[in-house]
Amino acid sequence: MRNIIRNGAALIAAIGLLTACGERPPIKTEQLGYRGTGMEQNVNPRIMAELVAANQAGPVQPAADGSGPLASEVYQNVQVLKDLSVGEFTRVMLSMVDWVAPADEKNCTYCHNNENYADESKYQYQVARRMLQMTRDINSNWKSHVAATGVTCHTCHRGQPVPPYVWYVDPGSGRENAFVGTRAGQNSAVTGLGITTIGHSSLPYDPYSPFLLGDMPIRVNGPTALPTGNRSSIQQAEWTYSLMVHMSDSLGVNCTYCHNSRAWASWEESRPQRSTAWYGIRMARALNNEYMVPLTDTFPQHRLGPTGDVAKVNCQTCHQGANKPYYGASMAKDYPELQGAKALPVAVPTDAAAGAVTDAAAATASAPTATPDAAAPAAAAGAPMARAASVRPGAAG
What span, in angstroms and rounded, lies between the C-alpha atoms of 122 and 134? Predict the structure, then answer.
């Protein structure tokens, strides 16, 4: 009897552990790296099925005619999509209603004044314009992270006015400026940091502000033995660890999706995905500083966080539990209107008094400006590559 009770208790404890972990068998294992390296991905088919169902790109508006008059020639106050035809412009506007407008207001008046569509009085109008610039910037200048897959408004918003996964600065964290260009001290005043997010569980340390607003070094291990080799504090290591956990959760992957666990810091022994992630961190930082933070005064108070800061992006904002948004399915290829400004026709003078224009000069004048993406690999600061300065669209014309 005693053995039966003991075995029964053990069985109940085992079931409790499995229930607590939420990972009951069977679990599939997929090899990622070379044999013997331990670079594997554990996949739960039940969880994967749920994630795939939640990461669908959604319907695509029928393709539009790119000929005909430009939208900027027909409509007033078109500042970003002025290179699109009326048909292409209308297609993007209808898609944005599906992608961004709330369920009870799936119409143009979520952003526009129905009496005057050129009116900018609604904050949604001003934010949407800036977000269109940001989307084109990502697709044109951050191919080092998004490649040809690209993004649309739906990548983050998923049919909601506020993306399901954004973050604000926690009131106890001393605001984001406390982290920009600073170095963590283990027993400094800035300890026990928390985060405030929508749709994401809290981590013990803020993995966002130091790296996705500031440019604090992420690498914390030193090249030589202590005491000279370690330039970082324990708390800075904790921040880095929190960032890595955030990235793992956001993509639904193990650490070995990017790293070789026998040599975590070695780029040579890492998978190519680590370089993609390196660019992703810098892309998120650029989007927050160049687009989101400058919109702080544009948003009404009820759209701001507890310390008055604007919602910002992190890895989860786009990935939402998938190693690639939509598991690699591309909406961007279906929306060339969001790939970047099209080259508009360049008028070539024909009047002899204006001077002859050679064939070479005409070709140069009509060619779109090249936008550099990434420079050659560089070893500086432990980075695989250094992104070259890009020609940004600015106000999109």
Answer: 19
